[in-house]
Design goal:
CATH topology of the largest domain: Rossmann fold
Helix content: 25-40%
Distance between the termini: 25 Å
Oligomer: single chain
Strand content: 5-15%
Number of strands: 9
Structural class: alpha/beta
Number of domains: 2
């Protein structure tokens, strides 16, 4: 396991040569990560978690690097997590929101990332409402782009922190049953999770109302290897991990679900349903939660829940991603 040790006369951290194989400029989705890439991130995240557990949970490994968070959508967990992660590694951080920036004056995404690059920003974390926006940014700047969530497409670091959390509790995911329930069709979290889970050998079951299931995607092979069902009670039986997704109330307004009451009756993760899972099954949620809708409050805060741990692990995983990208590109 990678080990980071504090040194009196030099910044703490592993030598970049230890990750000579990491050459990726950007992290745009999990489907571009090899099994070896995923293992490297997991190993590095474990070392970063140990750093965070110290009395002073910081190192100076990325001193001199500048990381910008460029968010066109509101965010608490992802944005704060990246900021804490970057500062914990000694990097300088620039926070930008579409509101109050030149974006309101009509500046394009390309112009914005090029401006950030021109002032010396080496890594830009982007969240955007349009699917594919980080790909456009990556193609038009030499700065590294990390996708912090784009439309309904992808959220790679959320999937990686979910995987890291699962592995810390259940070990290898080979043959483990992982159930994701909710609005699968519009979930960037579910899509990115599918890639990492399948690459890890998990049995993945996607459950939700028929109108919110990507049956065409599953049939086309894009999410090949997953089981898709509208019967959550059947899906949860024998599960090792159950992840509930936030139900967006606009889905009801758009006619995709008949009512919140009907959704709760058929798809809420509650104590009764959880009993159908394997003993000790993990309860997860990417947040923010609508307690009482997709997940019952007693389950969200129960003994099986690792939801708060997911948030904490997000810092370690994002430290790992930042470290690997910055040092992997070092001359």
């Amino acid at each position: 396991m990678l080990e980071i040790k504090e040194q009196p006369a030099a910044p703490a951290g592993p030598e970049p040569a230890a990750f000579e194989g990491w050459k990726a400029k950007d992290l745009l989705d999990t489907d571009t990560l090899s099994t070896a890439n995923i293992e490297t991130i997991m190993e590095t995240a474990e070392a970063m978690r140990e750093v965070r557990a110290r009395p002073v949970g910081k190192v100076a490994t990325l001193r001199g690097a500048t990381v910008a968070t460029l968010f066109y959508e509101q965010s608490t967990r992802t944005r704060a997590s990246f900021e804490v992660a970057a500062k914990a590694l000694g990097a300088d951080v620039v926070n930008l929101s579409a509101s109050g920036s030149s974006v309101e004056k009509g500046e394009s995404l390309i112009d914005t990332v090029r401006t950030l690059e021109a002032i010396g920003t080496g890594v830009i974390v982007i969240r955007h409402k349009s699917s594919g926006a980080p790909y456009l940014a990556a193609a038009n700047t030499s700065a590294s782009i990390i996708n912090g969530g784009d439309g309904t497409h992808a959220h790679p670091t959320q999937a990686l922190l979910d995987l890291f959390t699962m592995r810390r509790h259940v070990g290898s995911l080979q043959g483990r049953k992982v159930v994701i329930v909710g609005d699968i069709l519009h979930s960037r979290v579910a899509r990115s999770n599918v890639w990492t889970l399948l690459a890890s050998g998990a049995r993945v079951v996607l459950a939700g109302p028929p109108t919110l299931l990507p049956r065409t995607l599953a049939l086309s092979g894009e999410l090949g290897g997953c089981e898709v069902t509208a019967d959550f009670d059947d899906a949860i039986a024998g599960a090792d991990v159950v992840m509930a997704l936030r139900i967006q109330k606009e889905r009801q307004e758009g006619g995709l679900i008949p009512s919140l009451r009907e959704y709760i009756r058929g798809y809420q993760l509650n104590a009764t349903r959880l009993k159908r899972a394997n003993p000790g099954a993990l309860v997860m949620h990417p947040g923010p939660m609508n307690e009482g809708i997709e997940i019952a409050p007693d389950v969200a805060h129960g003994l099986a829940s690792v939801i708060e741990e997911q948030v904490a692990n997000g810092v370690a995983v994002r430290m790992a991603v930042l470290y690997l990208i910055v040092t992997g590109r070092a001359p």
